[in-house]
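We were asked to recover a plausible sequence for a given structure. The inputs and outputs are reproduced exactly as logged, with field labels preserved.

PROBLEM: sequence recovery
POSITIONS: 1131
GIVEN STRUCTURE:
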């Protein structure tokens, strides 16, 4: 293939039609999911990519839909769905329980919260079902217990009633003839449980049997007893009656018994009992009388109005030695009548006695009311004045005969007055009254003293003023408390030793326990979560795992949680906006969902699938989306949304996340035979090695499906047709083991024949070490070498189709034999493989040879970098130069016989970037018939553009900051041999030497020889020195050889410049005509000695003065010639 086709062909992929159009070849190739069916086609029929290929899109585009928005809302929901719980069985159980008497209470509904998953909802429903079952069990148990209680209660109470009725009947029957003792057993008063009442029933039945047996025994004994103890019975009856009578009176009666053996004993007991009864009655009567009196006294005290009343007059008494003492006093009766008396006297009282006395009578109307606690209230209602009487005891001898007596109310109103002389006695009937409004309380034992009710004045010589007063004393007295002794009586009954006793047992009524029970309804909400699952074709969960480009993944939109609470007629809508950069087949995905009953739409503008259905009671298979990552270094996350009944309930799924690894970066290298990188360089040695370095490091974290792995792993090198040939037997593959050790192996070579078969590999069948290495590698790779024009096999074509590659012409393909093993041990392990491809350049001179390769992983092709190397289009130059100082170029011109000239050997200048130099020779083949080598030469070695990659020292001088002069020499700053050349310093070197140079360094790097017999002069640069120069920097060798023309004719001088095993040849032709003059004897010329097969400086031949002279002359001529030719060369 030509160069243009080759350059266009790299990176070309066959275009395919996908549901999602990608921009270009590489992206299209990455989207291939399955191999296309391959048929045999000619390699020459494949074409390179055309110039109208769209620009490659290498990075994942941004999302153009709601995928990112959905991711922000992942695992959230809005709204809830109520769950209908059928609780009819519990309600029925509650009704039944209530009907049998259970006290049933309905409690608040039990809230079970909100579930989010089917399992959770089913678990909760199971919990509710279990709880319902427990409720029903509890209610049924309550019903059963209540029924058992009811039955046991009825039976037990019936048995108790039967016993108590028997006891009552027996008591009624035999109570009149004997003392019937009935003891009540309360053990039958149970808690109402069935078990207790069953025990009570048994107890009652046994007690009834015991009572019947006691009665029977009593009746039998009673018949014998009656005949002998009638008197005792009378006694006992009397005791019983008396005891009851005494008890009724409040006497504490005790009884004792005494065995009687005769009527006399009974009578004695009767007398004793009578005395006891009389004594008790007497004591009881005394106690009753005492208590009655105390009660009467206490009532009299509480309601008593007993009061002691006294009246008096508060007077202004007169005590006068002249007139004697004057007084006024008064008395009052219990009924309120009073008498107030006063005297009338003067100074004759002591002689004649009191003049007289006056008496006022009347009544104070007062009331005393009890306060109910012994205290009283006194009310003064009015005063009545009956009479006023004056009794004269003697005549009034006083000059003042004007005696007067006045009665006033306390307010000063006069009620009565009288005037008299005091000589006569008289009585006035007054019959006047005045109203009073006075009341006052008096406590028990207290006195209300001197309550005034009238003002009384007797006026004469000395006036006596008085006030009628009354005093009340509460004389009520509380009776002393009494504490009568307890009256007791002990009566003795007669007991016949053989008298039967009847002791019966009554039983307490039992109860019926009422069972309490409760039940409740249920409250449950459902907020179902939906899930998105992502798996590869092996069913491996790929959420959070790294997938390889083109590996088919299946996203499952798992809405199964919804079905746990969907009702027929509910609508379900699923919206799934896909991530950008996915390959998927719209039609296939829609068809799969439609086949499962979904109504599906696809919005191409937003790359969104929408699935809808109306629930009919049957679950639909959940939708799935089959897709494949179309980009390396991409991130594929996805979330979908579900709507139930439009917006009644909305929920977002979880977000699944799957990255793809970075695209591998396979690298192509080209080295020379010394292993130096010569990418972009000129190589003189046409033996090169291409290195195909895979890059499996991005795959260490991937999870690849079996399908992806089965697409295989391969390496394809599309050889540049006609530019180089591959040494197949020199191909090696280098592998790195776990310890970092490199194993070098050969490869299994399979030529594809025209019939499409694979021939036996080229390695041979012997058992050499090489064959052993090959056999080791044969387990790993098969190499296919397809030649231009040959038919491509179906197997190879399938690989090419899968990867989207269409190599043009010859190519090599290495295919991993066991993809699964290779994936595990190399790809997944990140262990790279290097194929060393030795080649021989066959391109024309001056041709740039390009080359790259493809690393094919999982059916995806990844192009390496492009390396180039140039085949040099160069040749040395050979010139004949005059030595007359003009430096005339004599090529194809005449050189005079005997003329001394210089042959310029202008070696090829090695360019700055080149392969490793290991050979640089200048070989001059001289026509010794026509030319004689004088032994003089001058050479120069020039190197420029070298850069110290580190601090280094060299065995020769170099120059920095140098300048290439017009004559080709170099000047600059010299760094002497052995001194440090700093890292990064650009430097040059320039060596000159001739036949006389005897410098050790020059002698070590250059060897000059002269083979006089063959006429061959040769300069060889030391190989070690050449290799030490590296692959960057120019290198050039030029030499001037001095020769004398000794014969006429056409003279050919040949130069062979050998570089790295390649001869570059040129020649120069000059002409020397025959002389036109007759021949004359020539003066013998002594030969100039030359170096013969020796290293400079000249050694071995004897040096004569003539030789020295000739050499000096030759050197001078040589130098001038050099200067001239250099000038022309530079021009």
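RECOVERED SEQUENCE:
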């Amino acid at each position: 293939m030509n160069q243009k086709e080759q350059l266009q062909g790299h990176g070309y992929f066959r275009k395919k039609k996908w549901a999602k159009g990608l921009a270009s070849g590489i992206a299209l190739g990455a989207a291939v999911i399955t191999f296309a069916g391959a048929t045999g086609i000619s390699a020459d029929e494949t074409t390179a990519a055309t110039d109208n290929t769209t620009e490659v899109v290498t990075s994942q585009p941004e999302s153009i839909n709601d995928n990112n928005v959905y991711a922000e809302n992942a695992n959230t929901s809005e709204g809830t769905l109520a769950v209908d719980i059928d609780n009819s069985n519990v309600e029925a159980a509650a009704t039944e329980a209530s009907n049998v008497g259970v006290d049933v209470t309905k409690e608040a509904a039990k809230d079970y919260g909100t579930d989010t998953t089917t399992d959770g909802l089913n678990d909760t429903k199971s919990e509710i079902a279990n709880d319902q079952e427990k409720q029903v069990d509890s209610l049924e148990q309550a019903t059963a217990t209540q029924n058992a209680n009811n039955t046991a209660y009825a039976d037990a109470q019936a048995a108790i009633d039967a016993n108590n009725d028997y006891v009552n009947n027996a008591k009624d029957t035999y109570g009149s003839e004997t003392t019937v003792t009935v003891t009540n057993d309360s053990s039958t008063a149970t808690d109402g449980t069935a078990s207790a009442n069953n025990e009570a029933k048994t107890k009652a039945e046994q007690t009834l049997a015991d009572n019947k047996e006691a009665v029977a025994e009593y009746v039998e004994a009673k018949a014998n007893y009656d005949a002998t103890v009638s008197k005792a019975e009378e006694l006992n009856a009397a005791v019983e009656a008396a005891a009851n009578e005494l008890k009724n009176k409040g006497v504490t009666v005790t009884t004792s018994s005494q065995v009687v053996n005769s009527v006399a004993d009974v009578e004695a007991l009767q007398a004793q009992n009578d005395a006891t009864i009389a004594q008790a009655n007497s004591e009881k009567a005394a106690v009753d009388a005492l208590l009655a009196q105390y009660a009467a006294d206490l009532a009299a005290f509480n309601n008593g109005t007993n009061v002691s009343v006294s009246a008096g007059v508060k007077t202004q008494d007169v005590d006068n030695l002249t007139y004697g003492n004057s007084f006024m006093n008064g008395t009052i009766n219990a009924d309120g009548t009073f008498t107030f008396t006063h005297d009338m006297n003067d100074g004759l009282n002591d002689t004649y006695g009191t003049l007289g006395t006056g008496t006022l009578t009347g009544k104070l109307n007062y009331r005393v009311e009890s306060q109910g606690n012994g205290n009283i209230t006194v009310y003064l209602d009015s005063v009545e004045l009956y009479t006023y009487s004056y009794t004269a005891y003697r005549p009034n001898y006083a000059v003042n005969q004007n005696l007067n007596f006045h009665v006033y109310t306390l307010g000063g109103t006069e009620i009565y007055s009288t005037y008299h002389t005091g000589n006569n006695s008289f009585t006035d009937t007054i019959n006047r009254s005045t109203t009073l409004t006075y009341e006052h309380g008096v406590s028990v034992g207290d006195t209300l003293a001197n309550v005034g009710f009238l003002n009384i004045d007797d006026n004469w010589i000395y006036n006596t003023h008085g006030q009628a007063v009354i005093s009340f004393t509460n004389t009520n007295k509380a009776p002393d408390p009494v504490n009568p002794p307890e009256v007791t009586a002990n009566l003795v009954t007669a007991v016949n030793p053989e008298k039967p006793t009847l002791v019966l047992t009554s039983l307490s009524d039992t109860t019926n326990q009422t069972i309490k029970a409760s039940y409740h309804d249920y409250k449950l909400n459902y907020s179902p979560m939906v899930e998105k699952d992502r798996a590869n074709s092996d069913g491996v969960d790929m959420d959070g795992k790294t997938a390889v480009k083109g590996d088919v993944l299946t996203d499952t939109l798992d809405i199964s949680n919804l079905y746990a609470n969907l009702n027929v007629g509910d609508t379900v809508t699923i919206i799934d906006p896909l991530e950008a950069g996915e390959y998927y087949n719209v039609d296939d995905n829609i068809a799969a969902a439609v086949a499962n009953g979904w109504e599906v739409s696809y919005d191409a503008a937003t790359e969104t699938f929408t699935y809808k259905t109306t629930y009919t009671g049957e679950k639909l298979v959940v939708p799935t989306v089959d897709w494949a990552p179309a980009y390396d270094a991409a991130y594929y996350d996805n979330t979908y949304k579900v709507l139930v009944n439009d917006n009644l309930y909305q929920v977002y799924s979880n977000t699944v996340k799957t990255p793809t690894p970075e695209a591998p970066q396979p690298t192509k290298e080209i080295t020379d035979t010394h292993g130096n990188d010569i990418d972009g360089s000129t190589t003189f040695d046409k033996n090169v090695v291409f290195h195909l370095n895979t890059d499996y490091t991005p795959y260490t974290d991937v999870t690849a499906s079996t399908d992806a792995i089965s697409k295989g792993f391969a390496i394809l090198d599309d050889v540049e047709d006609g530019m180089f040939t591959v040494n197949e037997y020199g191909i090696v593959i280098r592998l790195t083991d776990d310890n970092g050790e490199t194993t070098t192996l050969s490869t299994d070579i399979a030529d594809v024949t025209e019939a499409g078969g694979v021939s036996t590999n080229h390695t041979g069948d012997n058992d050499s070490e090489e064959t052993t290495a090959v056999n080791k590698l044969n387990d790993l790779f098969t190499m296919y070498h397809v030649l231009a024009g040959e038919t491509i096999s179906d197997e190879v074509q399938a690989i090419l189709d899968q990867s989207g590659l269409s190599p043009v012409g010859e190519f090599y393909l290495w295919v991993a034999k066991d993809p699964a093993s290779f994936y595990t041990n190399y790809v997944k392990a990140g262990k790279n493989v290097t194929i060393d491809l030795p080649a021989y350049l066959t391109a024309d001179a001056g041709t740039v040879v390009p080359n790259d390769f493809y690393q094919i992983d999982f059916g995806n092709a990844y192009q390496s970098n492009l390396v180039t190397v140039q085949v040099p289009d160069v040749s040395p130059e050979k010139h004949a130069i005059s030595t007359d100082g003009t430096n005339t170029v004599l090529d194809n011109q005449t050189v005079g016989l005997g003329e001394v000239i210089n042959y310029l050997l202008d070696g090829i200048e090695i360019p700055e970037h080149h392969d490793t130099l290991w050979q640089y020779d200048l070989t001059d083949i001289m026509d010794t018939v026509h030319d004689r080598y004088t032994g003089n030469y001058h050479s120069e070695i020039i190197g420029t553009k070298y850069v110290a990659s580190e601090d280094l020292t060299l065995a020769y001088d170099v120059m920095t900051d140098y300048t290439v002069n017009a004559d080709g020499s170099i000047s600059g700053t010299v760094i002497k041999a052995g001194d440090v050349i700093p890292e990064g310093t650009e430097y040059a070197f320039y060596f000159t030497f001739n036949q006389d140079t005897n410098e050790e360094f020059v002698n070590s790097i250059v060897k000059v020889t002269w083979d006089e017999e063959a006429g061959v002069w040769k300069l060889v640069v030391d190989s070690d020195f050449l290799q030490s120069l590296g692959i960057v920097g120019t290198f050039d060798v030029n030499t001037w050889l001095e020769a004398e023309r000794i014969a006429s004719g056409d003279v050919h001088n040949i130069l062979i410049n050998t570089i790295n095993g390649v001869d570059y040849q040129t020649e120069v032709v000059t002409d020397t005509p025959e002389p036109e003059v007759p021949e004359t004897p020539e003066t013998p010329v002594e030969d100039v000695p030359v170096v013969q097969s020796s290293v400079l400086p000249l050694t071995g031949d004897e040096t004569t003065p003539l030789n020295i002279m000739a050499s000096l002359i030759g050197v001078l001529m040589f130098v001038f010639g050099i200067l001239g030719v250099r000038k022309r060369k530079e021009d």
